[in-house]
Write a structure and sequence with these properties.
The protein is of the alpha+beta class and 79 residues long. It has one domain (4-75). 20% of the residues lie in helices and 28% in strands. The protein has one helix spanning 16-31, and strands at residues 4-8, 37-40, 54-56, 59-63, 71-75. It has a five-stranded mixed sheet with strand order 1-5-2-4-3. A hairpin with a 2-residue loop joins strand 3 (54-56) and strand 4 (59-63).
């Protein structure tokens, strides 16, 4: 992904999936199409180990070491 949207959400009452879905909804409203990938800081992934991926309603959530905690780099994958 070369172009995407950076989203910030540090609300402790929301889980990771809800945060990704909120970012995806905003992205879709803004750009007119649904994103399919979201990079987050590895510590935010389940288990905190930063390994693996998971899906949140069709959006693949992947670890990205360059992403700060509570930030979401969301967009459409190039591949």
């Amino acid at each position: 992904m070369e172009v995407g949207m950076l989203w910030f959400d540090n609300d402790p009452r929301r889980d990771l999936e809800e945060k990704v879905l909120r970012a995806a909804a905003h992205y879709e409203r803004k750009y007119g199409h649904r994103p399919n990938v979201c990079f987050v800081h590895p510590s935010m992934l389940p288990g905190g180990g930063g390994e693996g991926t998971f899906r949140a309603d069709g959006v693949e959530v992947r670890p990205g070491r360059a992403i700060l905690p509570d930030h979401f780099w969301i967009g459409t994958a190039d591949d």
